[in-house]
Amino acid sequence: MPDFEPKIVAFVCNWCTYAGADLTGTSRMKYSPQVSIIRFPCTGRIDFMLLLKAFASGADGIIVSGCHPNDCHYSSGNFHARRRWIIFRGLLDFLGIDVRRVQFSWYGRWGRSRATSACAAWA
Fold first, then answer.
1. Which of 16, 71, 96, 115 holds its CA 20 to 30 A away from the CA of 26?
2. Phi/psi at 3 (nearest 5 deg)?
């Protein structure tokens, strides 16, 4: 029986987290091929129904990551995402989905090693 390899979907901010992931690739750092990155202009624009759709499509884990607080290119998008996350946790609990399957984090564009480490820990 082959080893279990979780399918992870990362919903990331274009300006910080995606830029960090791009630097990871250009720096030839390795991260898990089981992580699929979906780029958004801002985490504040992520409709959390997309996260439920990712679970329905077979994702084992989800990462939502954006700019650090007060460093958002759209002023307050990451604060909107954080408020939605608080509500979304209740929905996950209601649906019986383990909240630990979703990681919500902030990574700046220079935090590529942290973001890569987080992806490796999940995969």
1. 71
2. -65, 145
Any domain includes 14 = yes
Burial class (CB in 10 A: 0-12, 13-18, 19+), 97: middle
Beta bridge partners of 8: 35, 61
Torsion of CA 53, 55, 61, 62, to 10 degrees: 10
CATH number reported for the structural domain that contains residue 93 in this entry: 3.40.50
Q: Rounded distance, CA 54 to CA 83, Å?
A: 20
Strand 61-66 vs strand 102-106: parallel, antiparallel, or unpaired? parallel
Alpha carbon of residue 97 to chain centroid:
17
Nearest 5°: CA angle at 62, between 92 and 17? 130
Mean pLDDT per 10-residue run, the chain (123 residues)?
85 84 69 86 92 96 88 87 92 95 79 57 55
